[in-house]
Amino acid sequence: MREEYIDKIDKELERDIREFRDDEDLIDILSQIFKSLSDPTRLKIIYALSKGELCVSDISLLLDMSQSSISHQLAFLRGQRLIKVRRIGRRAYYSLDDEHVFCIFKDGIDHAMHKL
């Protein structure tokens, strides 16, 4: 029965799905991105940084959270390469790593708002 069904699947579609299924490195990276974005505090930080470059004290003030907890989450997001840092003297300014991070985040917001 299974073989009969597989015979009806478009071969290009089948090849595409099997290539994705077997690309463990890609799936691992993608999984890590979504895990990173699953934390409410990190989502708030990503939202703040989607508005522009900010330092820890700015983010702390805007989110009404301690600088220590913000710094911890920023380090995690940097490790996942979702944000980047620019240093000027002793100050560190954070921003989204690239446009892709914003697109993933924005699409998530759009989908969530559609569900409301």
Terminal CA distance reads 41 Å
The total beta strand count reads 3
Overall average residue pLDDT: 93
% residues in beta strands: 5-15%
Largest sheet: 3 strands, antiparallel
- Radius of gyration, whole Å: 19 Å
Q: What structural category characterises the helix and strand content?
A: alpha+beta
Shape: elongated
H/E topology pattern: HHHHEHHEEH
Question: Spans of 5+ residues with little confidence (pLDDT < 50)?
Answer: none
How much helix, percentage-wise, in residues?
55-70%
Number of helical elements: 7
Tell me what you see in this structure.
The longest helix has 17 residues, at 99-115. Strand 2 (83-88) and strand 3 form a beta hairpin. This protein has a three-stranded antiparallel β-sheet. Helix 5 crosses helix 6 (67-79). The chain has 116 residues and is α+β, with helices and mostly antiparallel strands. Helix content is 70%, strand content 12%. One of its GO terms (molecular function) is DNA binding. Pfam families: HTH_5. Keywords: Cadmium resistance, DNA-binding, Transcription, Transcription regulation. InterPro entries: ArsR-like_HTH, ArsR_HTH, HTH_ArsR_DNA-bd_dom, Metal_resp_trans_reg, WH-like_DNA-bd_sf, WH_DNA-bd_sf. This is DNA-binding transcriptional ArsR family regulator.
